[in-house]
Amino acid sequence: MIDQASNLRKIIDENSKETEKKNIKIYSVLSGKGGVGKTNFSVNLGIKFTQKGKRVLIIDADVGMTNANIVLGIPIRTNLFDLIKGNKTVGEIITKSPYGVDLISGGSELLEMEKLNFEKQKWVLENLRHLENYDIIIIDNGAGMTKQTISFSLLSDEIILITTPEPTALTDAYRVIKVISNNNIKDKVKVIINQVDSKSTGDDTFNKLLMTVNTFLDISIENTGYIYSDIRVNKAIMDQNPFVIKYPNSLASESIENICSKLIDENIFIKNISNAKELRNKIYRIFG
Ligand SMILES: Nc1ncnc2c1ncn2[C@@H]1O[C@H](COP(=O)(O)OP(=O)(O)OP(=O)(O)O)[C@@H](O)[C@H]1O
Ligand SMILES: [Mg+2]
What we know:
Elements: H1 2-22, E1 25-31, H2 38-51, E2 56-61, H3 68-72, H4 80-84, E3 95-96, E4 102-105, H5 117-128, E5 136-141, H6 147-155, E6 158-163, H7 167-182, E7 188-196, H8 199-216, E8 220-228, H9 231-239, H10 243-246, H11 251-265, H12 276-287
Helix pairs in contact: 1-5, 1-12, 2-11, 5-6, 7-8
The structure holds adenosine-5'-triphosphate (ATP) and magnesium ion.
């Protein structure tokens, strides 16, 4: 495990240098409970970023349950598995969408790769280094914390955690923050409250989470925004047409616009990659 960890460490170190050089910002989108809106958020935020002139790649890393392509309404002919099998190059597994964002799909066959989890991570990290021409990479993860989501979160610059106001979702979100904190994966987590009926529901939900986190954990969480519950999200999914495109003036689209502007205003292109030593320590703690 130590050997594997040191391999991964080397790759992450190199990757950090690369992303630093190219100024790529990598967001890892997480949740505790499933079905809280990660994929819709990732896809629509990605499109919003492209509308503001950023070059965006979405990586659908939800092993076995990939569906970002469905939200985007585009057919996928290639996926990460083609790269693993050696049938395609990284450039060949990128699918373009009509909305400016590009997509790499995990592919349902990735489920078979679970046993090779560590190798898979190594492979993904190696190949990400060769991706050029992007300003932002958004990794749409599966629900919960697995070694896979931990690796992707280590690789990313920022973690965005999605929850709804439901107590069950909130409890699971807290558990994710706890894993991040206990393993020193990041010292900060951005939180988005999805499916709210008002701004105050968003703020109250965030404050509830904040109180618990401040009481029990040594990590900071940031109120990055909220997304209105909006029937047009479902309508857009039925039409396989992202809601920021189909319903640009909907409450949900306005919410995404606000979040996107906030992320850009935060000077998102300032490097925020953990230094090599920190990463090395984290890798040893998690895999070693
Ligand atoms: N803002 C919203 N308003 C209304 N419905 C929403 C909103 N966001 C998400 N949903 C609903 O929640 C469902 C799940 O969304 P999504 O697939 O994005 O969640 P997920 O977190 O990616 O799920 P998984 O954990 O399975 O990957 C959507 O199909 C949609 O019906
Ligand atoms: Mg999803």
